[in-house]
Structure formats: C-alpha cells, structure tokens
Amino acid sequence: MKLYDFLELSAERFGSNVAIIHGNQKVRYTDLFNSIQKLSEKLLKTDLQSGDRVALWCENSIQYVISYFAILKSDLVIVPVDTSLHPEQINFILNDCSTKGLITQSRFSRYFKSVFSNNTQLTFVATDKSISFPFEGIEYYSLEDIINNKNENHSVVEKKSSITDSDHFVYLKAKSEKVPHELATIFYTSGSTGKSKGVMLSHLNLISNTIGTIEYLKLTNRDRVLVVLPFYYIYGNSLLLTHMAVGGTVVIENRFAYPETALATMEKERVTGFSGVPSTFMILLNSSSFPKRKFPHLRYFTQAGGAMSPDVTKKLTDAFPDKEIYIMYGQTEASPRVTWLPPDKLQDKMGSVGIEVPGVSVKIVDESGEEVPVGTEGEIIVGGNSVMMGYWDQSNGHDKVLKDGWLYTGDLARMDDDGYIFIVGRIKEIIKSGGNRVSAKEVEETVLKIDGVTEVAVFGVEDPVQGEAIKAVVVKNDDDISVKTIRDFCAVNLASHKIPKFVTFMESLPKYQTGKINKPALKLELTKIK
Fold first, then answer.
1. Is the pTM of this model over 0.85?
2. Residue 23 burial by CB count (10 A; 0-12/13-18/19+): exposed, middle or buried?
3. Is 514 domain-assigned?
4. What is the mean pLDDT of residues 304-330?
5. Which of 38, 74, 285, 361 has the highest local Cβ count within 10 Å?
6. Number of domains into which the chain is organized
C-alpha cells in the first residue's frame, strides 16, 4: 500500500461521494480519479524517473489535489512549496533537493524568471492554465489541457457495496501494516533558526500517522472538513490525507482573511469538522460572529500547530459546549501527530496535549536520554513508524534529532500520574533570566487571561544585569490596557522573576501563512522600529 491507494480505494468504494468542494466547484471521487489518471500518464511520458522530486507550488485548489496524487501515482516525490515565500527562497528549495519537475499556477508566472534564473536541473513545468512560457530547455504543459476538467457533475453508477465504515477502517489498518518505507514527500520547515530543512517523510510515515488520526477522530465517509490551512503545511496535508482515505469531503476555503466568509462556507457546506492553529481560534472568538453561531452539522474542532492557552480553550468550550474539541500536539518530523486529548478529558486535563496517538510512542527524558519520573520536566521524544526518515542532505541535522530510532522534539514537558502530557515550552524558548529558567509559553498563557488581550508573544532580550530579560509584545482591543496592567496582572499570577521587564503594544503580530506567530520576524521588526 502507498499513499495513492487511499484515493484509488475511495474512488472504488465511494465514487459518487463529493471529494473536493472549492467555491462553486465540486468534484466527485470518480471524476477526481479520472483527472489524476490523465495527469499521471503525462508525467510518466516525461523524462522524470522514479524517485525524482516534483515541487507543488500552488494554493489550495482542486488542481493541487489532482497534482498531489498524480505525482504519487507516478512514483515521484512531492515537494510542497510555501506560496508566501520570496522567489529566492523558492529557488533555494528547488535547488536543495534537485527538483526535476514543477507544478504551479499561472498567477505565480511573474516570479518565474527569478525562480528559474539559477536553476539548471528543472526539466518539466506545468501550470493550471495556459501561459506564454519562454524558458528554453524546459518542457511546458497546461493542467487544463491535460485533465480537461470542467468541474461538471457527471452521472456515476456506484457499485453497491456492503462495506461499513468499520469494515473500511479495518481494511485500511490491515493494509497499513504492509507499507514501504520509501520517500514520498519532502516538507521544508519555516527555517526560523536558519536555512530551511527538508523533512523527508515516507509512505510508511504518513500512512501510519493518517490511520492513527482517523482512529481517534472517528472519521467516516460522511465527514466534511473545512480547510483554511494550506496543504503545503503538514497540518493541512493531514486534513487532506485523512479525508481522502475515508472517502470524506474536503471543503477548501482560502478566504480566512475574511472570517465571516469562512463561517458562511462552514454553514453552507454543512461541515462536520473544523481545524485551526491557536491564532485561528483567537481571531474567530475575538473578531467575528463565530461564538454566536450554532453550526448544527458540526461535530468537532481540532487544534494543533502550537500551544493554545487554557483561557482560549475555555472560551471555545463555553461557546460550543455541544461540540467535541480535540487538542493535539505534533511536529512535521513526526508526520505530524504525536498526542491527542480526548474531548471528555478536556475539563479534567485542561492545558494538557493528551496521550499518545495510536501507533506512536512517547517518552519524557533528561539530557542523558533517561526517562524522568512522573511530574518531572524533560524533553519529549517520539518513536514509531511516524518518525521521519531524516533531513534531506543534512547529515548533521540527523544526529541532533534522531537518536536510536527516537525523534528528539526540542519540546519540554511533564507527564502526570494518568499519563497525560503537559507542554512546558520549547527548549530554545526557555528564557534564562537572572539564573532562573522561565518558559515563554507560561508567560504568554498568563497574559492572554487578561480581558482585552487578543495576542501575545514573549521572548528573551539581552540584559546587562540579568543576562536575558523578559519581553512581551501584546495586541489588545481595549485602550485601557497599559504596561502597568500587564505587569500588575503578571505580578499576581506569576513568580516575580517571570514578570515581563519590557512590554510593547502592536496592532498585529507577524505570522507565517500557516497562522503561527513568526517570532524571528517580530524581533527583526522591533529592531527596525528602534
């Protein structure tokens, strides 16, 4: 079994189900399968060889999904590209993993000269629509011409099947035990600590993690997920794979900058699931009609992509007491899901990221790699089939994070008596102030409890006396909140050495396109302001 088999099996069993909805476009599994077949045949006729890398530089779209599975079906390796990157960064990725093919959109054609200028290995380029393509030595095709997909609904004669959701999952799980550990995708990290690294994930990695996620979310072919996260982001990729595997529906919504539009789509398409990072929920809870809506068809929310403060979680549960809320934790290097908090444990274990995902092993260890006692802080390490193959062509990176089959996450946590994990913070985000270790996460969660604070980022800055001083950058929607308000609240709720020495207010915080706060960009921005 390989990743493409998810799609092919769903086309066989749930052919008339709608696979993708994007705006007014709807594609059923049978039609999606036919389009993938056509593109795969074209890819197989190029000079690309098995294992060659093909970059996918597209916004979320039906074309993205077709291209994604066609690349896999052609025994090629997908390299998802962050569409917000500067052409120079895209060029770095293409060169770093010797990309031979590129599938993109015509809207990015104005950047082609910059991207292709220092790229000699590229042999194949396809865009969603026909454009003028003046680059010699590179084969060019139009996806529109290849797949001729007018997004019309076709009459489908579905094979009658007695397969139940349970039978389908049991079949998937059995097949997942025989998956090759062959390279399938290379996801490039954001590069917040230096140049981007290509995380190599195999068919085994992604299938194993997908099956585990389907199991605890109880996904079936009747589930519909609203996707506002980009597919090039591992969280968005997980939403795509889990729903294609069960024959469910992916509803693409690229207009989250207009929250009310996204909420209208949720209601119109009767989605059963919605997934976001912390800032996604903070925006919806603080700046939209989200808490006042009912969403009668919605079954669950999932949250990952960084720690969400208990205060924000409580606001979400208060607004939607009848919905299941899954708090999750993971990393790209773990394909990505590591832990999940069962919704019925949310109140008892508030602030926890939960327990191991099925098929994943988790330990909390000290600096020597030995497990620490319950309640003691240590580093989370992850084992199992979800652990990445390594970083592309970066052997030094392997040694730092992969040891004896375990992934060292760089995240500090503790485990309680019941086996539930509580994240303390990133090792690299522990502020050493005056001989004390301070978790930026703990300070951020405290500041977010203040009514009128919508976002906060905390980090250490150089200080001649303390070595590092704590700085908080705050976004507020209440003019009465002052530096004194922040510091006084922290004084009541935190130890004295954890009170921010510096507080700065900003209209907004810079973010990656995934929604995560971009602290390196924030620090640079503050430097420029000075």
1. yes
2. middle
3. yes
4. 93
5. 74
6. 3
